[in-house]
Amino acid sequence: MLTIHHLGKSQSERIVWLCEELGIPYELKRYDRAPVMAPPEYKALHPIGSAPVITDDGIVLAESGAVMDYIIAKHGPKENGGGHLALTKDHPDFAQYLYWFHFANGTLQPALMRVLISGRLNPPADHPAVLTGQQRMELCLALLETRLGDVPWLAGQDFTAADIMTVFCLTTMRRYLPYDLSPYPHIRAYLARIGARPAYRRAMAKGDPDMEPLLD
């Protein structure tokens, strides 16, 4: 049985959402933070000790991208409607899908974490780490804004796992690093489309019922 070990208000919301989009059975185990980091029982699941973690028929797997690839490949074949979430090499948007799928954790989230960590160290506002971190974050958001002004979803015309990977950085991550999306109308319109998806609403209600998603 596929089990999602969901740490509250964390990246593991992606995995709950993925399974809701696929319409596959899974067991959800929720863990509260203690008080900020994962509790000991969550850290014991995997040597890295961070979310997400899944277990499936004796397999223990972490890392958002790896978990999503695994679930789509094993539990979401095209015949049950799941294959469209990961575009194949024959799809015209394959390269865009790959780029945006990996952009989330390879570029966007590290940029946000750089600003978050430098802010907590409380350096001077003109410190190079602050300035370059802010510039990098703004560059990432501007790139997203441009892309979403051209297409409705990150890979192109179709909603894919690239969107599931990215939305955490634009929503829940803002609870830890507040930033203003008002200069980015295309990102805000995109988040409105996300919020209209029944699978997203179900996932957030199940995973974090006490949290209102930041969709604007």
Main beta-sheet annotation: 4 strands, mixed
Gyration radius (Cα, Å) is: 17 Å
**CATH class annotation of the largest domain:** Mainly Alpha
How many DSSP E strands?
4
CATH topology of the largest domain: Glutathione S-transferase Yfyf (Class Pi), Chain A, domain 2
How much of the sequence lies in strands comes to: 5-15%
Low-pLDDT runs of 5+ residues are none
Helix content: 40-55%
Give the overall average pLDDT: 91
Secondary-structure class:
alpha+beta
Structural shape = globular
Taken in chain order, the helices and strands follow as EHEHEEHHHHHH
Number of helical regions: 8
* CATH architecture annotation of the largest domain: Up-down Bundle
Strand order of the largest sheet: 2-1-3-4
Please provide a written account of the structure.
There is one protein chain. The chain is an alpha+beta fold. It has two domains: 3-85 and 201-207, Glutaredoxin (3-Layer(aba) Sandwich), CATH 3.40.30.10; 94-197, Glutathione S-transferase Yfyf (Class Pi), Chain A, domain 2 (Up-down Bundle), CATH 1.20.1050.10. Helices cover 50% and strands 8% of the residues. The protein contains eight helices and four strands. It has helices at residues 13-22, 40-43, 64-75, 94-120, 128-150, 161-170, 185-195, 198-207, and strands at 3-7, 27-31, 53-56, 59-62. Strands 2-1-3-4 form a four-stranded mixed β-sheet, with helices on one face. Helix 1 links the parallel strand 1 (3-7) and strand 2. Helix 1 (13-22) runs parallel beside helix 3. The mean pLDDT is 91.
